[in-house]
Structures are given as structure tokens and as C-alpha cells.
Amino acid sequence: MAFAPYKTLLEVLREDLNLCGTKHGCELGECGACAVLLDGQPVLSCLVLGVDCDGRRVTTVEGLVTDGRLHPLQETFADLGAAQCGYCTPGFLVTAKALLDEHASPTRDQIREALSGCLCRCTGYQQIFEAVEAAIANPQSVRNPQSVRNPQSVRNPQSIRNPQSAIRNAREAL
Amino acid sequence: MKIIGVPRRRVDGRAKVTGQTKFADDLMLPRMVHCKLLRSTLPHARIVGIDVSRALAHPGVYLALTGRDFPIPYGILPVSQDEHALAVDRVRFVGDPVAAVIARDELTAFEALDLIDVEYEPLRTFSSPDDSLAYDEPRIHDYGDAGNIHKIVSLKFGDVDQALAVSDHVFDDIFFYQGNTHLPIEQHAAVAAKDPDGKLVLWSSTQTPHYVHRALAKALAMPAAHIRVIATPNGGGFGGKSDPFNHEVVVSRAALLLDRPVKICLTREEVFYCHRGRHPVLMRFRTGVKRDGTITGMHVQTVLDGGAYGSYGVASTFYTGALQTVTYHIPTYHFQGCRVFTNKPPCGPKRGHGTPQSRFGQEIQLDKIAERLSLDPATLRLRIVEQPDTLTANYLRVGTIGLAECIRRVTAAADWASTFRKLPYGHGVGIACSSYLSGAGLPIYYNDMPHSGVQLKLDRSGGVTAFCGATEIGQGSDDVLVGCVAEVLGIDPIDIRAVTGDTDLTPVDLGSYSSRVTLMMGNAAIQAAERARDLLADAVSKKLSVPKDRLVFADRRVFDTENPSTGVTFAEAVCLAETMFGTLGTAGSYTPPRSAAKFKGGGVGPSPTYSYSAAIVEVEVDASTGWIHVPRVWIAHDIGRSLNPTLVRGQVEGSVYMALGEALMEEQVFRRLPPKLSHALVHKFPSMLEYKSPTTLDMPEVMTELVENPDPRGPFGAKEVGQGPLLPVMPAVANAVYDAIGVRIDEVPITPEKIVKALAAKAAGKAPRYGPAKFPDIAWPEALEVPPPWEGGDGRAVNSARGSSKSEVRSQGVAS
After folding, report:
1. Which of B815, B12, B780 is nearest to B350 (CA)?
2. Which fold is adopted by the domain B33-123+185-236+241-274?
3. Does the pTM exceed 0.80?
4. Which of A46, A75, B350, B607 has its CA 20 to 30 A from that of B591?
5. Ordered alpha helix ranges (H), B665-751
6. Best of A115, A126, A130, A152 to disrupt the B interface by mutation (most B CBs within 10 Å)?
7. pLDDT single digits (tens) B529-539
8. What ipTM goes with this model?
9. In chain A, what are the domains?
């Protein structure tokens, strides 16, 4: 593909490829909303030049869906309230994916550390941590269509009222 | 209940996690061009001349606009129509837009901004309320109550001075709440286009499409019927996208002139200039109490640094004094508030709108009162909690109150009895409470029409479309709409399509502010759905020969409750009804109950019902560095009923998060450039890196308790949750710091530097405190005297106070 050489990867993705799933919050490398994976590593696409990505593998939120099926992180983020306005969500999702690709079962502290470059103003982060942990606990949790009709089946509702037990369950399941 | 009260994925969850939610800047239209704004470099100046000819000559530039293109002012409140899309003859803060360039791409537009020549004649800079109170001239605006005072009010409910005179103790404290901003991760963006029949369409990240619609009609002098405003899902709002904005007006005019779509997306720096955030407030609380802690009277004074424009400021002023009485019983009450103009980005509504500042003062003072009276602060609060079904001293009608239960729940969860004043030095806990509106009782412009409308279209396929003007800003309003309809009709949320925030397609809802959507839209949705259910029941009853009152709507079926196998599918029911009645559609609407307050200014504060919260914050403070760590927060929220507990928990935790940011680090502050430069008053750090907000590493564990006592005025008993849980956290942090190290920090943000200074003061034998020392002398107007209900008052003033204002205030029932 061809694009102006001064363009950032963020601009190439959004403007030249129409992949608008990747967001921007500052375009100065401060907020993490534009995170994508470059050869599997999270980078801020507003700080990477498009031309530097020649021959490299870029994964955006659009690339998390496989054969029409959502990534387990996408399922748990949607189910557990980890996306409110959804604007920072793509950045969190790809950053969390990089973490899980590297560590099969990160601790809460490792999750905090890995996501610390992404700002979210809506959630207070707790439901994001829980969604990452739920995806670890059940990596096969790609949801079956049944659960659309029966939302309770996704998760014991009690556990949502009681986050501590949910986290305990998730940890015990490891 | 199948849907209500059950934790479930929000209806727009899939779109959000796949990056497919279309935010305003994600819209790409054919032939679209791009707009950039030139902003003032001086805080206060007369514009002597603007020359855009060099910019217009720049290749790729299509249009340049200046204030001359926007002669008609607008503003969110009818009493503060003080904004122009581009400055006409005066700039009032660094960042005030003076010209616009529309070009083939953003870069070209940016380049052309440098080619615009503006000649300014500087005027005196007003950098603080002290400046604005000291100098009447030059006036920042040629309206307002006096000089550079935008609004000054005095409301008196009973004889507070007499009550204080006979109290066992009178506490007199001064507090300061620093300003801060919303910082939504999405920068404001808008796209305007002329549609094929010549009308205007504006897509915008706005919380209030209805008010933008009205403002555009006025500012562009166009019939409102020829304007369509579509609120795109907001990437966070928090009150910061509630005003009609200059950039929305500019791209609208540009699109009409060019007959091409015009987009603008603000830079992060520009978002700091849009602001409309938390007012810095200096406040004084004089409170009389008896020995047992019951309050005899309270006198509250506030000074708000309003920034350069009116925005919601008249309402913000009243809100600093409105809700004190809703939380605790206060038999006599006097409120004096003053908002001044300064040369800074305008302040407005941020989550909690005007109430977090005075809540901070009130709850710290209560902590001081408890200590002086040797009472446990939780016990003291339980003793003075306002009674349910009460008319307060200032004529707010309070219904259900779950505050006592909230206090009991957090104190039990946090093991308060064995921690408060019992933890080692440097480790402490603090408690505070609050209350908030579930929707402003009055609209922004006076009218008797509904505040929210919902229309339903029922399809013979079994699908339902729900139309409502409410705006999805991340809080889950689409989910509330769909959840309420699904519950009544017995279908699955996935069967319902929500069409929201589109002034052409959806009935008016006033917008996503003042925590009004769940209650108002929810009630309208239930009414519309019940009317649809009634039509279907008529048809099914006839078909099955089963009495209507025996029919149940559940599991996508309509069936006989006494013989569940006798029934039809929901889709069949729709076909039967369509056959019987013709094309099916219903509408529901919601209008809040009339306010009991009949006095001028009584329009701010009334709400159909109020939510309550109590929070306990645990802190660890390093006395040598002042460093504060918050390991845990317990919060209980009286929500009436939780419609979708997953989303409710998110609102509570998000409120705690935002509150901790305000308590510990966030501040929108300004500095003067060196005299050898322009000496201009500029934002200290208009960037996300330097404007500190909590990260994943800063966020404590939050333990949320929901108190569910359904409120008869709420949809399925629900009250608000988006704003209330923020309020108790800041004072609880301050009270916890005192418990930890024995010094009072009477202002936010509570920073290590202030803690070290307070400890140094204590060590030097001075007052163990950091905070403002004095409250300015203000020439308050004669108070409007309104006898409280228990003194035979009827909600009317018994005098006609002079100078309260020339402006009409009945219609400012608004919050963020």
C-alpha cells in the first residue's frame, strides 16, 4: 500500500486503511488509546511511523476476531463491564492480549503493571482486571450463541455482586 | 423479573469490544474536508483586526471564518447567552477561538492557521476571584449581577443566626476545592454536512443533542426543523460534552457554505480549553450543633471561579448550596453563593455538578464536629440523617432514603469499629456520606413538556425498535432503554434495536446530564412498553379466549398464566395485534413532579428522588514524604433498584476512581508566562501526561455494596448511580488522612506537599492544618427569605429581595 511518509501508524490505520477500531486520545503517547501490537508487542501507534512498519505484523482490535468468533478477552470485557464508553477498550484489549500471549497466568499485579500505560476514565479499572482474569481462567470461554439468550449462563450473577469471590474463583480455577 | 436486576452484557457490548462503535471521529464521508480553529494567545484582549487573506491563499484551503460570520450569541442557559462560535471583538481566555480554517486535510488547515494575522489590544487579566471581586472594570462580560460578578445569590430558610446563637457549639470552617476537568479519553469531534434537500446534519460527541439542536437553530438563524443533530456515542462525557460548543457551530456553518461534509476533531490541548469542568470553590461553613450532634442551623458561603463564560454557571452556583439539607436534617439554613468571571477556560458541570465542592466542606466539618463532641463520626451521621418523605428547609421533596443502611453496610464491611482511631500512626480510615439528584426536576429552558419520550415500533417479525433522544455516553443508557422494554414485553434484549440521540428520528429526551436518564427515560420506556403490551394483550386475549389479566409476557411468548401451554409466540402476538389495530407503535413520556419550591432560585435542586452514598477510605501516609497510598475503599450506594448490576457496579467504581483523582492529584490550574514573554495567564499543563489522573497502578480495591430499596418514582424502583458515588470519597480521604497522621487538609487535591506543610505547622505549634485561611469580604445582596415548612412556609419568599439578580433562575434545573 502507499501512504504519505510523514504519517504515523495510527493515521495510516485510521485514514488509509479505514481501520477505525484503533482510537486516539492525545496523539502524544500519553493515554494508550492507540495501542496496537507490532510483531506481537504493544506499541503506541501515534508514536510509530507507518513507514517503519514495512514487513512487520500489525495487530489491531479488528484482528482479535477469528473466523467471526471474538477473542476470549473480548467476550469477558463485554460480559463483565470492562468496556463502558468503549473508547479506550481497543487499546486495553490488545495490550492485555500481549500480556496473556507472554504469561499464561499473570497475577493481578502483573496485570496492573502491563496495563498501566492505558488510561480509562470510566471503569476505575477493576472490571478490566476481572475481565482479564476471567479470560485467563477460561481461555476457551468463547461464548456459544446459547448464552446470548441466557445471559446468566455466562457467569454466576452472584459473583458479580461479590467481586472478591469472583476473583477468588478465577484464581482457584488457574 | 427476567432482565431487571440480572447482571448481563450490555446491549452495545459487542460493538465496544470489537472497536466497531462509531464515534464522531470515525465518520468518514465522501468529499469531507477538515476544520481547525485558531485560538487566542492572550487571556483578555480586544480584537483590533483579523486578516485571513494569507490563509485563504494557501493551497488546499477552502474557507476561512471569523467572528463576523457568527453574529448571534448562544449558550446553554437562557440567562447566559454569552458565547459566539468565534470571538467577535473580544477574547476572554487563552484558547478562546478567533478564526477557523477549512481545508482539504487537517495538516493543511493547521498550516493555514499560522497565516492568519490577528491584532490584539491587551486588557487587564483577571486570574482569580480576588481580582474579579477587586476590579469592576473592564468587565469580562457586559451582563451579570455586578462588575465581574456573574451571579450572586442569598437564600435564607429560617433564622440561622438565632439558631447558632443558642447552639451548644458553633463550628466555623473554610475549605477550598481546586478545579479539575473531565478528561474524557475521546476528544470532542463533530462532522457537519448538508443533506440532499439542503438541510443541516451534525454528528457530534455531545451529551445533549436536544440543546445543541436549539443552539444551532439560534446561532445559525435556521428553522430547527431543518437541522438534524445526531449524538454519536460519546467516548466518555462526565459533563464535559453537555454545552453547545463553538466547534459544532463552526463546522455547521462551514458545511452549509461549502456544501461539503466538514469534520473537526479537537486536539487534547484544545479539550483542556473547552473545559466546562469543576469550578474551583472557596467556601465557608458555619454550623451550629447541640451536644448530641444534631444540627441547629447552617450558613454556607461559596465563591466560584467561573472562568470566562456563563456555561451552566448560574445553576452551578445554586448547586453549591442546594443538597446539604437532603443528606442531613438542617432546620435553619442560609446559603450565599457568588460566581465570578475570570480569564480562564469556562467552568461548568462535571460529575456531581457544583455539589462535590460543598460536600467536601460539609463532610470534613462533620468529622471535626464528631471529634469535638467525642462522637463516632458514623454514629453522628446516623443520628442526623434526613428522614424519608420529608420536605427540607429549602423545599426539596425527599422520598426514599437508604443512607442509614449505607452507613451500616460500609461500617460493617470495613470493620470500622475496630479500625477508626485505632490504627497505628500513618494508617487511617475516614468516612463520609452524600446524596444526589436522580434527574433535575426542571428543564434548562422553561416549559411544561415531557423531559423524556420513548417511541416503540413493533414489527411482525417479533423485533421491536425503541426510539429515544437519550445519549449513550458510556453509562449504558441504551442498555437501560432496551432492558426496560424487554422486561415489560417479555422478550430478550437482543430482539430490540435502540435508536437514540437523533433529533430527526427520536422523541426528545433532554440529554445525558443530571443523572436523569435512567429515571426519566426508564419511566417513559416502561409506559411505552406497557401500552404496547396492552395492545398485544387485547389481540391475544381475543384469539385465545383468555382474559387479558391472565396473560403473561415472558420468554418471547404470551401465554395463559393458569395454563402456560396455551399461548402464542411474541411474533404471533404482534401479527394478531397488527391485524386487529393496524400498524403498531406506542409512545411513553415522563414529566417530573412539580417542585414544592416557589421562590426564585428554587429551580435548582428539585428531583423526583435522591440517591445516597456512604464511603470509607483507608489511607497509608508516609509522614516524612507526605506520600499517600489508598489501599482500599468501601462504598455503599442507595440505588433503589439495580437494573443491570454489572453496569451499576461499573458506575460506582468509576465514580470512586474519578473521585480519587480529584482528591489526590487532578487539578486544572494556571500560571503566568514570564513578563519577557507575553505574561499571559496560561493553563499550567494542558496534556494528559502532566494533568495527572489515576492509572491502573494507583487504583485501590473497591468494595461495593448496593442498597436496594425500590423507590416508587423510579423505573422498577431505580435511582441514579452515575454521579452520587463520587461525592463522599474526597472528604472520606481527607478524614482518613486526619485519622492517620492528625492533620487536617482542608482542600483538594490532597498532595504530599500539603501534608508535609501541615505536619510542619503542627510541629511548630501552629494549627495542625493545611487550607485556606480567610474568606473574602463580599457585599452579599439582601437575602430572599423563605420560611421553612415547619415555620408555616409555603415555598414562597416573604420578601422580594433586591439585587438577587435581574436574571430569571427558575429554569436552571441542571447538573452534569
Report:
1. B815
2. Aldehyde Oxidoreductase; domain 3 (3.90.1170)
3. yes
4. B350
5. 729-741
6. A126
7. 999 999 999 99
8. 0.96
9. 9-63 (3.10.20.30), 67-169 (1.10.150.120)
